[in-house]
Amino acid sequence: MTDRARFTYSVLAGLSAFAVLVVITVASPSAFSDLSMVLFLAAMIVFSITYSVQLGGGVVSLMPMTVAAAYLTMGRVSALWTVFLGLLGQAGLRVLRGHRHPGLREPQGRALIERTAMNVGMHCFGLLAGAAVIEALDVEIPLLFLDSRVVARLLLGELAYLGVNYLLAAVYFTGLGGVALREYARSLPRLGLFEGLPILIAPLFPVVYAQLGFAYVVLFAASLAGASLISHGLSQAQQRLQRRVTELASLQAVVRALSSSLDVETVVAAIYEQVGNLMPVSSFYIALYDTSADEVAFPVVIEDGQRRLQVMTRPGRNGPTEHVIRTGEPLLMADSVAERVASLGLDHSGRLAQCWLGVPIKAGDEVLGALVVQSYVEAHVYDQSHLVILQMIATQAAVALQNARLYERTDEALARRVQELDSVLRTTDDGVLLMDLDFRVLAVNRALANLVGIAERDFGRHRIDVVRPGGEPLISLVHYTLEALVSDSERLRTEAADQIQDAVVFAPSGPHAERTLTPVRDKAGVITGWLLVFRDLTEELELQHLREDMIDMLVHDLRSPLSQVMASLSMLGDATEERDADQTDRLIGIAQRSSGRMFALVDTLLDISRLERGHLPLELESTSVDSLLREVSTRYLAAASANNIALRTETENDLPMVLVDRSLMGRVLSNLVDNALKFTQDGGEVTMKAEPGGEARPDQVVVSVVDTGPGIPLESRGQLFEKFQQVPNIRGRRRGTGLGLPFCTLVVEAHGGHIWVESEVGVGSSFFFSLPIGQSDYDASL
Predict the structure, then answer these.
(1) Taking a C-beta distance cutoff of 8 angstroms, is the pair 86, 47 a contact?
(2) Are 167 and 185 in contact (CB under 8 A)?
(3) Helices (DSSP H) in 101-177: which residue ranges?
């Protein structure tokens, strides 16, 4: 039920009851009599409601007893007028008290109309139901005597009166929501007990009035009023006590939550939860002040029970929050918040509150921020008692926030140191294992995990000689025994050595490493642990093997032509003595060719070195790709024909000119064609092609050399363009140097191009390289 529907229901109930009252009065005008008694009992209704007792979802008062007494004394019509006038009088009293004492939070306006109309409807219809039952049971009204039969019938009428009353109230509480209805339902047994029992006294009222007179009725009513005052006072004292107990319990809960956590979010959530238990809160926020930046941060803002997820920060303003922070004093604006803000010379921003309370969060003389609660719905929600309890919570919050800030700074510093150590461990290529004095693993990095072949988490935090589940001891993975480790550590402890180094192999064909054991010392030089460092030697060994292979290759490739030169010179001497001119010319030719091969090999090595360093100048000239391909084709046509290999050239018409070093680019093509002829079987084909780069390379010309040789396996293509690398298990017509393709790569890249290979085993290989049209990015002056 909406607020509007609930208001309409209440007003209809009150108006319906009033309409029934008017109809009954018009129908039986003589039934309305004894105006003085009506006014007296109406005054008793005002008094009983004023000094009622809060209970559960409603209030307990002597009004049901007064209404029953009015009916049993004067009849139905006068009793209904008594109810109506009493409730109107109570509404007027509430208006008067609300204006004189705003802090009492009396309902005003629409809320007062709704509550008064609902009370009129509940008690009038309840009275009509009870009267109908009593009159149906032939009980004479006004009541002049009592006996057991009359009392029993009056009890039935009492049940009808309270039943209709509580039923209409339940419908009203349904409109307030499920929580209010459940609370009201739980309080019904107590409401029935505290309101039903006094009604049993109501039959005495008409009997006293009939037999003893009005004076004794006043005396009887005064005694009841005294009892009502005593009950009201006890109820107020109980409410104050209960409120104090709730405040202390909430404060204890805040202290417990704040002392058990150093997390700012947890601290703030605990504060909000307990503040919400103590007072109505439409808006709750904590403001923290940064003096260095003159900014106010709002780590938590809760509006109507919903928390803002984004933390807001703003420059310091001249608002109420900043006023509390600046002065270090609490500020309570119970009503007229806009006027109070203006009178303090402050600026208002955001949603206007009806009641505003803010207290500073102070640690000693330092103001850390402010804790603020607001009510958007009702004024005078907060008073001095709320201010005091909020100050107590703010004091505890200041200590918690200060501890949390200190913890955050310490945690950040520790996290920074840990991150630095972790960065060192992760970025170093050496494997690192840190142990305490008992050889318990403290830290290990990924490099070591990769060396030994297990995950970092599998090292755990155990002694290094502990056997892993389903595996071998960690100590064996680092190629140590416990006895050897203890022995080496003792040598280091006695300073017989600064460090102990050994060479280890992690698998029969796995990585080689240099293992170093060194002590970890504190500032005083005391040993606090042990550090094992593993330097991977695999790459160094591979480079060493590469140097050895290169030396072997150079010795072989230089020795062979050198032997031919020496043999030719020896034979040349013999031929000279014999004066054989033909033999002399042939031997000189052999010597020249062998010397040329040695020169070409040395020249290639020098060119590769200069290309790698960027020290080989390019003599660029505008060149036709077609003429370059035909020139190389002419050079190798005889060699191709000798091996029955078809050497073809295919170029597209109107290919653009390229700006290249014609000599170097000719050597690139010669290397590629020479390789193709070397590995293509007799009867095969080698084709040189040139074509535009197409959509993928619109500003380039792509040149390719395609053969029908054995092809290159996929696993061998990655290292094909590196120095001294050759495809294993594939033999050509002659042995190569492993320098041709690296030379081609460097030359093509120097021209701003790119080289790559495509191959299929058993079908052949295609080597491509691209050349940009126009000026190369390479600096020809180098």
Answers:
(1) no
(2) no
(3) 110-136, 148-174
Q: Which residues pair with 620 in a beta bridge?
A: 661
Q: What is the DSSP string of 471-509?
A: S-BHHHHTT--HHHHHHHHHHHHTTS-S-EEEEEESSTT
Token duo for residue 463: 């002694």
Query: 646-651 and 685-692 as β-strands: parallel, antiparallel, unpaired?
Result: parallel
CA 304/CA 659 separation, integer angstroms: 75
CA-wise closest residue to 202 among 215, 221, 227: 221
Residue 394 has pLDDT above 70, yes or no: yes
Residue matched to tokens 């008692």: 385
**How many CB atoms neighbour CB 733 within 10 A?**
12
Cα 520 off chain centre by: 39
CB 74 within 8 A of CB 36: no
**Helix (H/G/I), strand (E/B), else coil: 581:** helix
* CB environment 488-504: b (16+ within 10 A), e (fewer): bbeebeeeeeeebeeeb
Strand stretches in 165-221, DSSP E: none
Return the pLDDT at 74.
87
Determine whether 4 is exposed, middle or buried from the number of CB atoms within 10 Å of its CB (0-12, 13-18, 19+): exposed
Residues 6+ apart with CB under 8 A from 301: 283, 284, 285, 307, 308, 312
How far apart, in Å, are the Cα atoms of 93 and each of 15, 42, 86, 99, 110?
21, 13, 10, 10, 16
Residues 6+ apart with CB under 8 A from 163: 126, 129
What is the SS3 assignment for 315? Answer: strand
Report yes or no on whether pTM surpasses 0.70.
Answer: no
| Integer Cα distance of 137 and 131 in angstroms | 10
Is 619 within 8 Å of 659 (Cβ atoms)? no
Three-state SS annotation for 681-740? CCCCEEEEEEEECCCCCCCEEEEEEEECCCCCCHHHHCCCCCCCCCCCCCCCCCCCCCCH
DSSP state of 467: B
Q: Are 534 and 513 in contact (CB under 8 A)?
A: yes
End-to-end CA distance of the chain: 89
Question: Percent of the chain at pLDDT above 70?
Answer: 75
pLDDT tens by residue, 607-657: 666 776 776 788 888 889 999 999 999 989 988 888 899 999 998 888 888
Contact, 253 vs 274, CB < 8 A?
Answer: yes
Dump pLDDT digits (tens) for 708-754: 988 888 887 777 787 767 776 676 666 666 778 888 888 898 888 89
* Distance of alpha carbon 746 from alpha carbon 393, whole angstroms: 75
- Cβ neighbours of 136 (radius 10 Å): 12
Q: What is the pLDDT of residue 351?
A: 81
Q: What is the tens place of the pLDDT at every residue in 181-205?
A: 787 788 788 777 877 787 888 888 8
From the list 559, 547, 602, the residue with the least C-alpha distance to 724 is 547
Q: What is the pLDDT of residues 97-108, one digit of tens each?
A: 767 766 556 667
The length of the chain, given as a count of residues: 782
